[in-house]
Known about the structure:
15-stranded antiparallel sheet; 24 strands
Amino acid sequence: MFATQTATFNTARDNIYAPLGTAPTTLSHADIESLPQGTNASLNDVLLQLPGVTKDSAASGGFHIRNEHANAQYRINGIMLPDNLSGFGQVLDTSLIGSLALITGALPVQYGMRAAGVIDITTRSGAFDNSGTISMYGGSRETLRPSFEYGGRTGSTEYYFSGSYLQNILGIENPTSGINAIHDFTQQGRGFAYISTIIDPTTRLSLISGASVNQFQIPNNPGQTPSFTAFGISNFDSSKLNENQIERNYFTVLALQKSIGDFDAQLSYFTRYSSVHFTPDPIGDLMFNGTATDVFRGSTTNGVQADAAWRINDAHTLRTGFTVSAEKSQVTNSSLLLPLDAAGGQSFGDTPFSVTDQSALLGWLVGVYAGDEWRITDKLTLNAGLRFDQMYQYVNANHVSPRISMTYKPTDNTMFHFGYARNFTPPVQVIAAPTNTALFTSCPPPLPAGCTTVQAPGVPGPFAPMQPERAHVFDTGVVQKVLPGLEVGVDAYYKIATNLIDDGQFGAAYRARSSGYSG
């Protein structure tokens, strides 16, 4: 009885978030277990098995979906997780995944903000009968990964808990040609909890929570010659640099699902804290870079998401919903800077001075949508809708985004899809924080006029704030089932973007930020 009720609720939830007009690629838990390393593989490595996903530099720990620079959204049981700060580590373990779908193309109206692709995760259910597993995975280069899972059911409540620890000396990309990098040890811990209870035949309440703390040493490149002197020191062994980064991510989601007749809805509250903290080697960084910057990026997000689907009749299903989130971000760059003359020399001495550049903001994102699924015939379906998104961040902007798609199934084994979407993508708030370039252009007294630093911009400021990306996306394709368990698909897509957001690794510190441009 409980399994039947759970399946009914899951089907209703799938109906709310149906990715109409797209051709998602889905992996089951069994599919993930059959991959190299199985559930010990990182989520990013699993995603690389899917079409259209390519690996970014190992230094960034990221990936590209259809050559997009980040701009992907994660959903757990239909609920969109707020943006976490880009880093090297993973937030989620693959062991918690019941199924994983990658949704790309011209997304329907219920998918807003991050539009390069949707990584839609459904948590495991019914996998354990009040039991669990403890495992140990290890290998070369000091790789060690103990993990545990425990799950089951009591009455009308099911639960699942998991945790893992990972260490190795393969934290970030090796900058040398040697087999092992110097100063590249990483420690990564992750935990996950899922509790779901069926209150009555039409109501289910779920709690999802996760945490990750990832620490990385920044690898060194030996044999480098210092460009500056600092504190009277003129020689420094670059293999002895000690730069480090720690990343923290915590999230919790509380979701209430209701299904009454032809009406399905889910209301959820979500909260997330994310931070990245880079600590430099004060003397070494000054000597090689002319600056040693302690970088902190922190973000706390709280929000509400509501989605509903109403089957009006056999031909029409109306889907509507909204999202409201508030984000408090904090950015602090505490820099030690060497005073330089106009020619880049050290005629003003080699004693650094300190500069702190801070920015804090309470920003808001609001989105609302409505769309209609029109089953014209049993083979032809038209899905059309509008969504409106508003951002109040370092830039205030809004956009109305029409979406329309069509699917045609001439046979049970063949499906064509065509779609158009207008997308609106705000920059990640904490990454879009402005820099006070005046702090780095000159030096404080008693240093004389004409003194500058390596961080002085080549082009005088001030600089315009980052704008949201606006894009037209066209997508068409066909999926053909060749044999049971084997499908072949072909897809073509075209994107026209203004203020394209490029997310990458820039600057002396290993941190992610974005820069907008038109193209």
